[in-house]
C-alpha cells in the first residue's frame, strides 16, 4: 500500500525514481498523521504527504531547502524555521498538501561548513548573504530542484500552488515539468535578527518580501 495513486488516463507514467530509491510509512507528528515518503536522488530527501492525494492538480506544496541552523535549532538569522512551521500548519489547516524537504541545499547549496563561514563574514565584516558567499569563492545559488519535481511526478502531482516567495523556484519547477498555477506567499515576520538577510533576498535575489518594507519604515520611524 503506497500513497501513490494509480495513474489516471492521460498521465505520463514517470519512473524517474526507482523502487529501491523510495520508501514510505505513516508518520504521526504533533500536527497529525502524514505519509512520509523518503527518496534518494543524489541526497536522501523526504516528502511529507498530508491528506488523500486523489487530486492531481492545484496541490498545496512547499519545496523547502534544508537549513540545519534554522529548521532544527531555531536560528533567527534566517526565516527558514518559521517558513517550515508555517507551511506545515497551512497544509494541515487546508486538509491536504505535500511538503518536500530537500537535502544538500544548505546555504543555497554551498554546504554547512561554507554557510557557517559566510556567517563569520556577515558578523565581522557586515557582508550580506550574497557577498559573504562570493567573497569565499562560492556561487550564490547552486540548489538543484529536480529531485522535488521528480517526487511530485512520482506522487502524480501535475500542478501546484507553491508556498514560496522565490521566483527562481517557480521557474525551476516549471522547467522540470511541474505547473505552478499559483504562488502562495509564505511571509515570516521581519525581526532585528533577520532583516538584513531578508533585505538582501528581496533586493538582490528578487524575492517578494513585502514585510521588509513595513519593518524598515517602522524601524526608521522609531529612530526619529
Ligand atoms: Zn536558513
UniProtKB/TrEMBL annotation:
Function of the protein: Catalyzes the conversion of GTP to 2,5-diamino-6-ribosylamino-4(3H)-pyrimidinone 5'-phosphate (DARP), formate and pyrophosphate.
Keyword Zinc assigned to the entry: answer is yes
Q: What catalytic reaction does the record list?
A: GTP + 4 H2O = 2,5-diamino-6-hydroxy-4-(5-phosphoribosylamino)-pyrimidine + formate + 2 phosphate + 3 H(+)
Organism equals Actinokineospora alba
Q: Which UniProt keywords apply?
A: GTP-binding, Hydrolase, Metal-binding, Nucleotide-binding, Riboflavin biosynthesis, Zinc
UniProt domain GTP cyclohydrolase II: residue ranges: 22-185
Q: Report the cofactor remark.
A: Binds 1 zinc ion per subunit.
**One GO cellular component term:** cytosol
Q: Which family does it belong to?
A: In the N-terminal section; belongs to the DHBP synthase family. Belongs to the GTP cyclohydrolase II family.
List of residues binding Zn(2+): 67, 78, 80
The residues the record assigns to binding GTP are 62-66, 83, 106-108, 129, 164, 169
Cofactor(s) listed: Zn(2+)
From the Swiss-Prot or TrEMBL record, give the protein name. GTP cyclohydrolase-2
Amino acid at each position: 500500500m503506497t500513497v501513490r495513486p494509480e495513474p489516471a488516463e492521460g498521465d505520463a507514467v514517470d519512473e524517474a525514481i526507482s523502487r529501491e530509491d523510495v520508501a514510505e510509512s505513516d508518520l504521526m507528528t504533533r500536527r497529525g498523521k502524514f505519509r512520509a515518503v523518503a527518496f534518494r536522488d543524489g541526497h536522501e530527501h523526504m516528502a511529507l504527504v498530508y491528506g488523500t492525494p486523489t487530486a492531481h492538480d492545484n496541490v498545496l506544496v512547499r519545496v523547502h531547502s534544508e537549513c540545519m541552523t534554522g529548521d532544527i535549532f531555531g536560528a533567527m538569522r534566517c526565516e527558514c524555521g518559521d517558513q517550515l512551521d508555517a507551511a506545515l500548519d497551512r497544509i494541515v489547516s487546508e486538509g491536504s498538501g505535500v511538503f518536500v524537504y530537500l537535502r544538500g541545499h544548505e546555504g543555497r547549496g554551498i554546504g554547512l561548513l561554507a554557510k557557517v563561514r559566510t556567517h563569520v563574514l556577515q558578523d565581522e565584516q557586515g557582508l550580506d548573504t550574497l557577498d559573504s558567499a562570493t567573497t569565499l569563492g562560492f556561487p550564490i545559488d547552486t540548489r538543484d530542484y529536480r529531485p522535488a519535481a521528480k517526487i511530485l511526478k512520482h506522487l502524480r502531482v501535475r500542478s501546484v500552488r507553491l508556498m514560496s516567495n522565490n521566483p527562481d523556484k517557480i521557474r525551476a519547477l516549471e522547467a522540470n515539468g511541474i505547473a505552478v498555477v499559483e504562488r502562495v506567499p509564505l511571509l515570516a515576520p521581519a525581526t532585528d535578527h533577520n532583516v538584513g538577510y531578508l533585505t538582501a533576498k528581496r533586493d538582490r535575489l528578487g524575492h517578494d518580501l513585502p514585510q521588509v518594507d513595513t519593518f524598515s519604515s517602522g524601524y526608521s520611524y522609531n529612530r526619529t
